[in-house]
Structure formats: C-alpha cells, structure tokens
Write a structure and sequence with these properties.
Blueprint (H helix, E strand, L loop, with lengths): L21 H13 L5 H4 L8 H23 L20 E2 L9 E2 L2 H16 L18
Antiparallel strand pairs: 1-2
GO molecular function, one term: kinase activity
Pfam families: Mob1_phocein
InterPro entries: MOB_kinase_act_fam (IPR005301), MOB_kinase_act_sf (IPR036703)
C-alpha cells in the first residue's frame, strides 16, 4: 500500500474544504446524500438557497479526489511497459495536447498521459478564477 500513496506517483492528497465554511457544509451534505443509498438524481440536486456554481465546484473536487484514489490503486500495475498506449479499449486511443510542450495530439504511455492529465486538472481546480475558494465569488459566470 505504501507504493500506492508514494508522492512521486500520480496520486495526490485530497483537496479539503475548510471546516466552518459554506463549501464544507455543502461537501458534508453531498457526502451524506451519496452514502445514504438515496436516488442519485436527488443526491446531486441543488439544495434550496445554495449557489449552483458552489454546488458544482464541490462535486468537481470530490470527483477529482475519487478518481485520484482509484488511479492511485492501479498505477503500480500500469507501467510504460504494460500500458504503452492510453486507450479506452481497442477502438479508442487518447492523445495528449496542451499547446505548451505538446502542440499536436501526441500518443503517450498511459502513466505519462495520466500524470499530465491529473496535473492539468489540479491546476484548473486550484485556479481562483475558475474555482474561487470564497463562496459566491465566481467571476463572469465561469464554471
């Protein structure tokens, strides 16, 4: 299990919401509804009186944390040798393009693709212009 949580791997620690904040309360509400066996449609429904952008942000961060954990459990089995292509089965191949280092869609081994993807998502989540940490402070309808 030590290898799964090794800092050099794609796994990253969970992004947390500060206790006492409205986002923390929204996160607790989302967790309670998802863990209670409730209908998923009802679980993700915007609570009355809450900001839609804040509610979506909580779920995006939670989804990122869950994907991160799942990938962390398999990354030791998916190496550049065992997973030389990032694919979605035999019909689909994912290629990386970031307009910085990879200006054109580029085939990469799955672990390298996932590292780039998780880094990119983390940058987006930590961008205050996209995901401000203060509730209700979205600029210009971003998100």
């Amino acid at each position: 299990l030590k290898q799964v949580f090794h800092k050099d791997k794609t796994f990253r620690p969970k992004r947390k919401f500060e206790p006492g904040t409205q986002r923390f309360e929204l996160h607790k509400r989302a967790q309670a509804s998802l863990n209670s066996g409730v209908d998923l449609k009802a679980a993700v429904q915007l609570p009355s009186g809450e900001d839609q952008n804040d509610w979506v942000a909580v779920h995006v961060v939670d989804f990122f944390n869950r994907i991160n954990l799942i990938y962390g459990t398999i990354c030791e089995f998916c190496t550049e040798r065992t997973c030389p292509v990032m694919s979605g089965g035999p019909k689909y191949e994912y290629r990386w393009q970031d307009d910085l280092k990879y200006k054109k869609p580029t085939a990469l081994p799955a672990p390298q693709y996932m590292n780039l993807l998780m880094d990119w998502i983390e940058v987006q989540i930590n961008n205050e212009d996209i995901f401000p940490t203060r509730v209700g402070k979205y600029k210009g309808g971003v998100l």
